[in-house]
Design a protein that fits this description.
Belongs to the bacterial solute-binding protein 8 family. This is Iron ABC transporter substrate-binding protein. InterPro entries: ABC_Transporter_SBP, ABC_transptr_periplasmic_BD. It contains 14 helices and 13 strands. With about 350 residues, it is of the alpha/beta class. It folds into two domains: about 180 residues, Nitrogenase molybdenum iron protein domain (Rossmann fold), CATH 3.40.50.1980; about 160 residues, Rossmann fold. The strands form five sheets. The protein has a four-stranded parallel sheet. Helix 1 crosses helix 5. The chain is elongated and about 65 Å long. The termini are far apart.
Length: about 350
């Protein structure tokens, strides 16, 4: 019997994941709420509930050993690469409605008899403990952290999934790849002087649905990944915000990225008020670009990572002259989900390109 202890940092505190290597020994981990969970052996039947829990599981195991699925995952797979690549998941037994505002359904979960419940629903120990008490099944809380893309909580969650399901090497492969991409983006862009950076803005960013150009993010994780000069950061706000459209005219960024999830909204608004958009330097100078939408039942991390490379390529072409964003996107999709997917995503949304609003 070999014991391994890994100390992991991130999220709310220093977190520890501990497990045994042998499948015949008990497995003990600490989840993202610091709860200690013990299983008698590795899990061979699994459910993943709550926004993004199933996606994290798929990064490690695909559709293998899933016992059931939330109803919300059975809708259109478009925009959710983990479901596009694993369509068989939608045929599994329904274990609850799902959705960010719905609680878990203990009775339906019990009907498929899983060995473990991975969840992102629980924001406190009490609710996680309550679900575990009602089902008498180990409940392991996962998290996307505050930023989702390149957040250390994601890496910890993936490692926990790997340990509990006996897929440690695969989980570590995914974690290492994500870390390598983050480090690569940082290395390419961290030493660029501020006065050499174009000012930029991300508009029509999806947030519980599609929005117009005024939907954006402060302290935007994808811009942070490439050290971009985000005009929104002067507000001091973090996360999703809706700005006054006149504020964008005042900022007048050099380059603007439009999330393709809201591109149609922007195009319809352009028809109503073309003069507004034509007063933006980025529109006048042909510096309007796309980014693929990645917010569907929380963050599709692989699509967000692909976007980050495209943003870097547009903002600093010399630093990314060896990068083909489309090929890099396929590499990311294949590494995290097992299949190249860029062409299908581009077919559904438009892909990486310059945008014209006329």
């Amino acid at each position: 019997m070999i014991f391994t202890t890994i100390f992991l940092l991130g999220g709310c505190a220093s977190k520890t994941a501990e497990t045994t290597v042998s499948k015949f020994e008990k497995i003990t981990v600490k989840d993202l709420l610091g709860r200690e969970i013990t299983l008698n052996s590795k899990a061979s039947k699994v459910v993943a509930i709550g926004p993004g829990a199933l996606r994290l599981y798929c990064y490690v195991n695909g559709s293998k050993n899933l016992a059931g699925v939330e109803q919300i995952e059975k809708g259109s797979p478009i925009g959710k690469p983990y479901m596009m690549i694993n369509p068989d998941i939608s045929k599994l037994t329904t274990i609850g409605s799902g959705g960010p505002n719905n609680a878990a359904d203990p009775e339906k979960i019990l009907s498929v008899k899983p060995d473990v419940i991975f969840t992102t629903y629980s924001i406190d120990k009490a609710s996680a403990d309550e679900l575990q008490s009602k089902t008498n099944i180990p409940v392991v809380v996962l998290s996307y952290g505050k930023e989702s893309t390149f957040d250390s909580d994601v890496n910890i969650s993936l490692e926990i999934i790997g340990k509990i399901t006996g897929s440690e090497s695969r989980a570590q492969e995914v974690v290492n790849y994500i870390k390598n991409c983050k480090n690569d983006l940082d290395k390419r862009t961290k030493d660029i002087a501020e006065n050499e950076k174009p000012s930029t803005y991300a508009g029509a960013v999806s947030m519980k649905g599609s929005h117009g150009i005024e939907s954006t993010q402060g302290n935007y994780s994808l811009f942070k990944a490439v050290h971009a000069k985000n005009v929104v950061d002067e507000t001091g706000k973090t996360g999703s915000i809706m700005i006054d459209k006149e504020k964008l005219l005042k900022w007048n960024p050099d380059k603007i990225f439009i999330d393709e999830g809201g591109l149609q909204v922007v195009q319809e608004d352009y028809k109503k008020n073309p003069s507004y958009y034509n007063n933006l330097s980025a529109v006048k100078n042909g510096e309007l670009y796309s980014q693929m939408p990645y917010n569907f039942y929380t963050t599709n991390i692989e699509t967000a990572m692909a976007d980050a490379y495209y943003l870097g390529k547009v903002l600093y072409p010399e630093k990314f002259k060896d990068v083909d964003p489309e090929k890099k996107a396929d590499e990311i999709y294949k590494t995290l989900l097992g299949k190249e997917l860029y062409s299908e995503m581009a077919k559904n949304f438009g892909g990486f390109k310059k945008i014209t609003l006329k």
